[in-house]
Automatic annotation (TrEMBL):
CDD domains noted in UniProt: arch_bact_SO_family_Moco
Protein name per the record: Molybdopterin-binding protein
InterPro entries referenced in this protein's UniProt entry, alphabetically: OxRdtase_Mopterin-bd_dom (IPR000572), OxRdtase_Mopterin-bd_sf (IPR036374)
Oxidoreductase molybdopterin-binding domain location: 35-179
Region: Disordered, residue numbers: 1-26
Cleaved signal peptide residues: none
Length: 199
């Protein structure tokens, strides 16, 4: 069973209003995972949204690459108290994918190629709030950071931005994911320091 890590000891830099409480600026891009890094070839990669009626909506890598892409600049915040400001990503908005999916649900349970899950309210995935990101700082997304594609939900702690994403189930009820079942907060708002259950 993974060990619950309460994070690095750090201090927020004075005068930086882009850093949530308790966060510090990271050097580099730390790699934190609960297991080995999956290597997912793009020719077998699939992303599947299973809607509330259990219909499957599937995209191959080639189909994903044909969808409109967006350039995203976002601050990201890890529950272990590091942040990176102004990170540059490229990917497809979930709004684009949901144009062909009936969004009759309240919640999504996200699944990955390493059997990780995380729960996110559907309202936090739509309205230009979330993307399937496949490029970072002008290069293909490194597998250590979730390549070939990861979910990017930058307004929540980074564990909600699942690496190696392969799909999501739309649900009419909330269902906790991997870290949420192990003591992390159910929602994960960095500005409210929602790191752990009870925060």
């Amino acid at each position: 069973m993974p060990i619950l890590n309460r994070g690095f000891r750090s201090r927020r830099q004075p005068g930086d209003d882009r850093l949530p409480p308790g966060q510090h600026l990271a050097d580099g891009f730390p790699v934190l995972t609960a297991g080995p890094t999956p290597r997912v070839p793009t020719d077998t990669w699939r992303f599947v949204i299973t809607d509330a009626a259990r219909r499957r909506h599937t995209w191959s890598w080639d189909e994903l690459m044909r969808l409109p892409r967006e350039q995203i600049t976002a601050d990201i915040h890890c529950v272990t108290k590091w942040s990176k400001l102004g990170t540059r990503w490229e990917g497809v908005s979930l709004d684009t994918l949901f144009e062909s999916v009936p969004a009759v649900a309240d919640h999504a349970l996200v699944h990955t190629y390493d059997a990780y899950t995380t729960n996110v309210p559907l309202g936090d995935l739509l309205g230009a709030k979330a993307w399937l990101a496949y490029r970072y700082e002008g290069a293909e997304l490194d597998p250590r950071h979730g390549g070939p594609a990861r979910l990017l939900v930058p307004h929540l702690y980074l564990w909600k931005s699942a690496k190696w994403v392969r799909g999501m189930h739309l649900l009419d009820h909330d269902e906790p994911g991997f870290w949420e079942m192990r003591g992390y907060h159910n929602y994960g708002d960095p500005w409210r320091e929602q790191r752990y259950a009870g925060d």
